[in-house]
Amino acid sequence: MLNPFYQDQLTEAGCDEAGRGCYAGPVFASAVILPRGFFHPVLNDSKQLTEEERNELRIVIEKEAICFAVASISHKEIDRINILQASVKAMHVSVSRLTLKPELLLIDGNYFKKYKRIPHRCIIKGDATYASIAAASILAKTYRDEYMKKLHEEFPHYNWACNKGYGTPEHRKALEEHGMCKYHRKSWRLFSEQPLLFDNESSF
Q1: CATH code: domain of residue 71
Q2: Is the pLDDT of residue 194 over 80?
Q3: pLDDT for res 203
Q4: Residue 196: is its pLDDT beyond 90?
Q5: I want to staple 45 with a disulfide (CB 3.0 to 4.6 A). Which of 62, 101, 113, 127 is the partner?
Q6: Distances, alpha carbon 57 to alpha carbons 30, 38, 45, 62, in Å
Q7: From edge to edge, which strands make up the β-sheet containing 12-18?
Q8: Spatial CA neighbour of 171 closest among 19, 23, 18
């Protein structure tokens, strides 16, 4: 069972991203503030749920959350500033869009850049530990999946409707046959001879 909150004094927002390891498309992030009494028996890390469960939980979260926001950073900006910085930037943007200012940010993972003067806690496997991070993971994942299905209509041979841009054998085979398209992350080593385009220490 997930922990409902990290502490009981400050207003918490859980933050998570989706699409960090993909070959193509943007990275999405979400920030969610849940009410004190929120509980759902199925709520968990989005990776542990089926697509149907995630879509059902998205409706519940959007209805019952005090507030939530979703943001994305494009594949072009990922190439410019690197995926780690882009993931953090997406979380910053999602927090900035919340209609209630949080007093504490719970971040999934082990890296984050301080957002304004709001304190934060980085929590490894936080999406399987705290309800608000799990909720954020579900929103980020479902919004990104929805977006990749739209891109699939433009480039169906990569089958992003199913693999969502991840480096599945099917996706890699399509890359060998068709090469990269305009939505692929050019800074990824999708081919062994492909040079990296960014410095991993880049910042936004």
Answers
A1: 3.30.420.10
A2: no
A3: 54
A4: no
A5: 127
A6: 14, 12, 11, 8
A7: 67-73, 27-33, 12-18, 104-108, 120-123
A8: 23
Q: Does residue 49 lie in a domain region?
A: yes
For residue range 85-95, list pLDDT tens digits in order: 999 999 999 99
When divided into structural domains, the chain yields a total of: 1
% of the chain residues with pLDDT over 70? 93
Task: Kindly report the backbone phi and psi dihedral angles of residue 67, in degrees, each rounded to the nearest multiple of 5, phi listed first.
Answer: -165, 160
- Burial of 169 by CB count in 10 Å (0-12 exposed, 13-18 middle, 19+ buried)? exposed
Name the pLDDT band for 191 (thresholds 50, 70, 90).
Answer: low
- Domain ranges, residue 16: 12-153
Residue 77 lies in a domain: yes
Give the residue carrying structure tokens 């492909």: 194
Has residue 192 been placed in a domain? no
**Confidence at residue 1, expressed as pLDDT on a 0 to 100 scale:** 85
